[in-house]
Amino acid sequence: xxxxxxxxxxxxxxxxxxxxxxxxxxxxxxxxxxxxxxxxxxxxxxxxxxxxxxxxxxxxxxxxxxxxxxxxxxxxxxxxxxxxxxxxxxxxxxxxxxxxxxxxxxxxxxxxxxxxxxxxxxxxxxxxxxxx
Length: 132
Fold this sequence. Notes:
This protein is of the alpha+beta class.
């Protein structure tokens, strides 16, 4: 047993080596050419609809003030005191996401226009509820 190998080590050929990306002849080639759809747009003479890998955020950032109180959690959009709302423990126990998205839909706007701000609020609410 001492000198023998166990398992399938000798039965399969070794895998091919990983390509060394540092040895490419032109490392900037892919950036200069652009993605294939951009090249096709250029060739057709039309403006490409793609804005690149990341698009700038179209909605301004929103900060929430969250405070744990006796009846539930008080939530308000920072610098907008008229948005203060009490999320009851019953509503939070039923569905925390529904309560968070309901609050953002009411005071900021629908998810389709504002993005995932309700999801961020839900994460903050979970963190507050986890603290005892």
